[in-house]
Structures are given as C-alpha cells and as structure tokens.
Specification:
This protein is mainly beta. The chain has helices spanning 10-13, 38-50, 142-146, 182-192, 199-202, and strands spanning 17-20, 23-26, 57-66, 76-85, 89-98, 101-112, 133-134, 147-151, 167-174, 212-223, 233-243, 246-255, 260-272. It has a single domain, classed as Beta Barrel (Porin). A hairpin with a 2-residue loop joins β1 and β2 (23-26). Belongs to the C/M/P thioester hydrolase family.
Length: 273
C-alpha cells in the first residue's frame, strides 16, 4: 500500500490500524523526495497516543524528534508507552518504527479541562481568507489534495522584515469535514503545522547558489484553546535564527475571530546542494 491518491481526505491520512495493545500501523505519503512527510508521521504518532487516553483528556502539548527519514513504500509501526496516568494529566511516549529502526519519537501530554482567567497575543492583521491568494502549487500532491491554503504573504519572498527575521503568513484548513472529536482536530493541525514552516528559514537565502535541502530535526506544538481544523486558521510564521545549518521557526494559529488556538516551534537542518 502507498498513499499516492490525489483525492484522499485529511482524516484518511491520519488513520491507523490497531495491531495489538499499544501497537498501531500506518502508511505515509511523500514530503521531501523519497521521504515520508514529517507532519504526517507526527500526526499519526499523536493519533496512536490519543487512542490510549480517555476522550475527556485533551492533548495540550507534543514534542517530537525526527531520527531518520521515513519511507513511503512500507508501513510505519507506532509503539505507545503509557508513561503516566495522573489525577489531571496523562503522559504518553510513542516511537515510530520502520524496518526495525526508530525514525521518530514523540512525547505528548493530555489534561482534563480546567477553567480560569485567560490572556493571549493579539492576532496579526490579515485579509480574510476569501480575498487572500489561492495556493497555486502542484494540486496533484497528496498533501495539497487534503489541505486548502491561501497566502497572505508572497510565498517566494514572505513579509517585510520587521527585525524578527523572515516571516510568512497564510490561511489553512482541511478541505473536507473532520470527525467531531477534539483529537481529530489536534492531529489534523499537527499535520498542517509542518506545511511551509521549515521553508520560512529559506526565504532570505533563496538566492544562494545550489538547491536547498531542508530536513526537520524536531517539532513541538502547544494547543491552547478548542478549534476546528476544517475551518480557516491563520498560520503566522517567523524564523528568528539560522546558524550552523540549523534554522529555528515559530508559528501561531488563529481562528477567524482572533482566538490564538495553537503555537508551534521547529528546528530544521538546511543545506544547499
């Protein structure tokens, strides 16, 4: 089995087959040439972790490390370790295994809902998604058959420099309706959070000689408030540092009414070949 259909919906890309207690099997489509898409591996690992947690406990953070490039011509096995089940928090660790080797590891924390006072950053200015530019990339890819993207900034140059490093901004959502469970939407957003985030590092170096090769090293997401990933979210990204071939990127997701629902940070290896 390979995921090369151009009409798969996002929920299908996150499906896993239970094999045994704490063991699941999934398939991934291509991201970079000959490699499984890292956002899908992370999202499937979170799906496996969430399958072992009571539904009233919602994931609030995940931290993942990409160890080896995954292949698309064989399945990935996800092994869940039930690290802790506390009074308010649950912790899970997941290792993704392919061909007998670990390719990705993830730690995720889940929490019972809690009330209290709140504060958040203000949503950056952006035109509404219905007037933003439609993504003109290759629509034949599995990734873009499942995700709708509308750019606020130029995809080649990003936003003007404001002293925070290269920046870009776009509206994103799953093209098709997702199940009405919180886990489905946080896993979908984990998938989406790896789209163009690493590329933010590349923006000021686009004229350097050679072809840039980007590899994600680690990926972390924090979920702040409830949301739906099949409704428009503003993805605001910046890269404050690039040195020793390693770039750091941050991103935030806002709903159309200005609620900050998730934050993401990634370190990426970028080399020009």
């Amino acid at each position: 089995m390979t995921l090369d259909s151009t009409h798969l919906v996002l929920s299908q890309l996150l499906e896993l087959e239970p094999l045994e207690l704490n063991l699941y099997r999934g398939w991934c489509h291509q991201g970079s040439p000959q490699r499984a898409f890292g956002g899908q591996v992370a999202a499937q690992a979170l799906t496996a972790a969430g399958a072992t947690v009571p539904p009233e406990r919602h994931v609030h953070s995940l931290h993942g490390y990409f160890i080896r490039g995954g292949r698309t011509d064989m399945p990935i096995i996800y092994e869940v370790e039930r690290t802790r089940d506390g009074g308010s928090f649950t912790t899970r660790r997941v290792v993704a295994i392919q061909n007998g080797e670990s390719i990705f590891s993830l730690s995720a924390s889940f929490q019972l809902e809690a009330g209290g006072s709140e504060h958040q950053a203000r949503m950056p200015e952006a035109p509404p998604p219905d007037v933003a530019a439609t993504d003109e990339q290759d629509k034949s890819s599995t990734m873009l058959s499942a995700i709708e993207v509308r750019f606020v900034s130029d995809p080649q140059t990003g936003l003007p420099d404001n002293g925070r490093g290269p920046r870009q901004r776009m509206w994103v959502r799953a093209k098709d309706a997702l199940p009405d469970t919180p886990l489905a939407h946080v896993c979908a957003l984990t998938y989406i959070s790896d789209i163009r985030l690493a590329g933010t590092v590349w923006l000021p170096h686009r004229d350097e000689p050679g072809v840039p090769h980007l590899t994600s090293l680690d990926h972390a997401v924090w979920f702040h408030r409830a949301f739906r990933a099949d409704e428009w979210l503003l993805f605001d990204m910046e890269s404050p540092s690039y040195a020793s071939n390693r770039g750091l990127t941050h991103g935030e997701f806002y709903t159309t009414d200005g609620r900050l629902v998730a934050s993401v940070t990634q370190e990426v290896l970028m080399r020009h070949h």
